[in-house]
Design a protein that fits this description.
single chain; 61 residues; mainly beta; SH3 type barrels; five-stranded antiparallel β-sheet; 5 strands; globular
Length: 61
Amino acid sequence: MRQLIERFIGKEVSVASIVGTLRGVLTELSENAVLIECKGNVQVINVDYIYSVKEVKPKKK
C-alpha cells in the first residue's frame, strides 16, 4: 500500500480510513503514516488504517 500511496504525494486526495474520510493535499509519507494538509491543519493517518486513496479535483473557490 505504501508504494501505491507515494504516487499521490503533492496531490489533492480523498483518504478513507477506519475512522472516516479526509480530503486534502497529501504532503508526506513516512514508513507507517501519511500527512494530509486540510484547510491549514495537518492530519496524520496511520497507513495500516487506510483502505482507500483517490485523487480528487481541487475545489473551485
